[in-house]
Amino acid sequence: MTFSDIVNEISHFCPIRVFSASSKTDISKVRLWADQAEPDMDSILYFGHDGQSNLRPNHYILAVDSGDSEFVGLSSDSSDIPNEQSASLCDCVKEVEQESAVPDSDFAVISKEHFAVVFNRIQDILSERNENDYLHYLMDTADKVRSVDELIDLASQTFNASLVLIDRDFRILSHSTRIPVTDELWVDNIRKGYCDYEFITEVKQLKSVQMANPGIAPFEVTCSASPYRKLACRVYCKDAWIGSLLLIEGDQTYRSEHSEMLRMLSSVTGYALLSYSPELLYRTSEYQSFLYNLLIGTPLENLPEAYRDMKFQENMKLLYFRPDSSEIPSIKGKSLREAFHRELPDCHVITYRKATIVVCSTQDAESVGHLLDLFPSKYNVSVGISNPFHKIELLREALSEAQDALSTGKSIDSGRRVFSFEEFSVSVMLKHFSETGDITRYIHPAVLCIARYDEECRTKLLETVREYIQNSCSIKKTAEALYLHRNSVIYRLHKAEEVSGLDLNDPDTQFALRMSFCILQVSPNIG
Questions:
Q1: Model confidence over 364-389: pLDDT tens digits?
Q2: Which domains does the chain have, with CATH numbers?
Q3: Is 42 left (phi over 0), alpha (psi -120 to 50) or beta?
Q4: How much is the mean pLDDT over the chain?
Q5: How many Cα neighbours within 13 Å face the side chain of 400?
Q6: Are strands 17-21 and 162-167 parallel, antiparallel or unpaired?
């Protein structure tokens, strides 16, 4: 909306005198002039009064005392104004005209008695126009990117704050990455893909949540556990509430206009979900909801009584399938569940975004390699396998085991695709310990001694000792693994004992070395 458009709008309900309207700049908002420049001031129309300093902005409406008789009948055409009637006005603006004699400058005068009406009216017009422009931008973006993830990501930049989309069960449907979430509570939720039962319970106890209207009006959901303010807005699809958008402030706090922007984004998000990501709206059965609630930590006694005595296999394992890359599209849940049930008729499947959780008998879990073929090759899916468990209420613990086996195993051997907790449990334990303290002090001193010798003499004694320990102290298997003659292996092992003072036949030494090599796996930059 140009200055000329604004003047034309004002002239419909009050007199205005225009001295300059030469710019074609698009005016986006109005502000009161405070005798100082502001960022992006070229797109702002300022209102001021005749008592201010000589410093003037490029787009300016001046409010002056005109007198009862002097201002009546003023129009935008100065030729209609008798000289004697316009004399005092010209005195007021003469200085302004000199200051405004720059290209593309706009200047007009109104009476102070109309100031409030004009300011509020123009503010409302521009606000409504900006809202319509933003809504059109969001709709165009949704149709262009055809992805809820990309829509949320691009929208976060217009807020300059992070965004999270959750469903009604507090599962993470999407989150911004261009402006990443920095709130530690939500970083952890995003990492897991869902919110814990305790977290959900605390959120539902917030007064702002309990008092929120069922519509799409944004409301504050800030809690004492986090330093960041948050604004929430429900998302609807065909009048059905399917989740909520969460705006989380970052380095810069969110502004008042963000409330209306979030409301518009929620409407467009509902449209994008229906049009381009309907798999995110898949409604699980009550049975699958029961399993999901167990996964997030809901106590068994808080779940429907009818499900508490459901029969599961006596010996179960949990398989956690996840793609290597977070950049690929979400896996279609329905077809994948059907494929798993064809392979394992008695299994239980929960698909969620990029992860697929399968609960099956320990016998079915013995060979999972062929199950990886159920996923398209572009997903490059790997699987973590839990230890056996015998009670369904241990489902959440089994999920943690499978996730830990996958993440730790991948960090050790990125070329593999199947990782069992049974095999990687020691490495998982050490990795957890390393996050809270220095575990390198538990490395056997002989390991570092041999590593220094290898570096100085360009030998491979430590590699030989590692293979020897990992192959159950078998000379034959070590030689095969290293493509060496057995005599070469024996020579290297004796040399390692000579250099470090080790006794490789001692069981306690073997255990200490095995633990040391595990520490090196989870801390690869050591030594």
A1: 888 888 899 888 888 889 999 999 99
A2: 3-124 (no CATH), 146-281 (3.30.450.40), 286-432 (3.30.70), 440-522 (1.10.10.2840)
A3: alpha
A4: 82
A5: 12
A6: unpaired
